[in-house]
């Protein structure tokens, strides 16, 4: 049985729900309460062609921080849900389910987690992402769209692997300030949130325990396109060039504009393929999303960041979405946290069909 099914919080198929656990725990903060959900005849703006009907999004909260050293990113999913994300998605016409990954239970099975080579917390990352891959695959096999709330970006090892079980030809659009394509051989920090793409591609150095006990390469260089990069390690630059991976850096966004970049990106991956969108909120400029672990100035504007999600929604090809690296413990004040959480919610809505008119 999948971990999230074993610990399901609730199913939101258009009916009233009880106030979730964390909303009750913060009952003095009324803005975090979920309103009761009611039946709606609305439908999503776009026809999501690879999903069953009625269109259903399964929100998977995965409070995991083991891919990097900063505390607090595991609280991101709770804050996004408390901010009303589930109601917001239903208001767009989606049937909404919500389940929480049993991350604490999974981690309790990891008795020790010494470094393996340069890799930090490899057993924790492998254990959690293996289960997440199963959870995402289960959702996709049911004709639903998995929306994974992180947590750090190492979770994409599991989300993309799960998507590929259902949609072997799926393309991956990776929106991020960072390439996250270091390998266990090239990483300086050893933090695995900087390595998920290399594991998915099966690059040199990734055929290592414990990952090789369950993970096989699922991604080809031509399946992948990056948008928003601006902080790329030297080892990553070499990998990107050697494998001919399509990258649109912030220089390209400045030069061409985000509309042209998205046209080029979609032309590259093909306009009739399923799309997995993996969105790190640090792709946006730190003035927009300050509460994240590795902010880099010179990022996407609010509208550029949302246009990416909107353009993918317009294709009707979206089959999976990750929203990661919201860290409510970071930021100068409560307003910074609230702003970053609100952006995480609005990016999710944009990918799921919210329009300006």
Automatic annotation (TrEMBL):
SUPFAM superfamilies: Arginase/deacetylase. Coiled coil: none annotated. Keywords: Arginine metabolism, Hydrolase, Manganese, Metal-binding. Mn(2+) binds at residues 153, 176, 178, 180, 280, 282. Its EC number is 3.5.3.1. PROSITE patterns: ARGINASE_1, ARGINASE_2. The keyword Metal-binding applies. It catalyses: L-arginine + H2O = urea + L-ornithine. It comes from the Eukaryota. Pathway: Nitrogen metabolism; urea cycle; L-ornithine and urea from L-arginine: step 1/1. GO terms for molecular function: arginase activity; manganese ion binding. Its cofactor is Mn(2+). One of its GO terms (biological process) is arginine metabolic process. Binds 2 manganese ions per subunit. GO terms for cellular component: cytosol; nucleus. It holds the Pfam family Arginase. Belongs to the arginase family. PANTHER family: ARGINASE. This is Arginase. It comes from Vanrija pseudolonga.
């Amino acid at each position: 049985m999948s971990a999230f099914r074993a610990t399901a919080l609730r199913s939101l198929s258009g009916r009233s729900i009880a106030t979730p656990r964390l909303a009750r725990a913060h009952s003095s903060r009324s803005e975090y309460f979920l309103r009761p959900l009611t039946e709606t005849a609305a439908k999503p703006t776009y026809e999501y062609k690879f999903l069953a009907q009625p269109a259903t999004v399964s929100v998977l909260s995965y409070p995991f921080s083991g891919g990097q050293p900063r505390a607090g990113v595991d609280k991101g999913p709770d804050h996004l849900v408390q901010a009303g994300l589930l109601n917001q998605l239903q208001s767009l016409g989606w049937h909404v389910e919500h389940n929480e990954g049993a991350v604490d239970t999974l981690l309790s099975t990891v008795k020790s987690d010494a470094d393996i080579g340069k890799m930090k917390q490899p057993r924790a990352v492998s254990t959690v992402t293996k289960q997440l891959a199963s959870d995402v695959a289960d959702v996709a096999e049911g004709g639903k769209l998995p929306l994974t709330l992180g947590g750090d970006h190492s979770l994409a090892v599991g989300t993309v692997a799960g998507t590929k079980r259902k949609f072997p030809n799926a393309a991956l659009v990776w929106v991020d300030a960072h390439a996250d394509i270091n390998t266990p051989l090239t990483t300086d920090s050893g933090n695995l949130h900087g390595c998920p793409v290399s594991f998915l591609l099966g690059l040199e150095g990734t055929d290592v325990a414990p990952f090789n006990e369950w993970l096989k390469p699922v991604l080809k260089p031509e399946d992948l396109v990056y948008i928003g990069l601006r902080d790329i390690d030297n080892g990553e630059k070499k990998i990107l060039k050697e494998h001919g991976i399509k990258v649109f850096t912030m220089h390209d966004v400045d030069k061409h504009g985000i509309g042209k970049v998205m046209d080029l990106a979609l032309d590259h991956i093909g306009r009739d393929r399923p799309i997995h969108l993996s969105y790190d909120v640090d792709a946006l400029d730190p003035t927009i999303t300050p509460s994240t672990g590795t902010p880099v100035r010179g990022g996407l504007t609010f509208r550029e960041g949302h246009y990416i999600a909107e353009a993918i929604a317009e294709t009707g090809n979206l089959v999976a979405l990750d929203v990661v690296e919201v860290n409510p413990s970071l930021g100068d004040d409560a307003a910074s946290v609230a702003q970053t959480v609100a952006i995480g919610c609005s990016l999710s809505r944009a990918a799921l069909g919210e329009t300006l008119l």
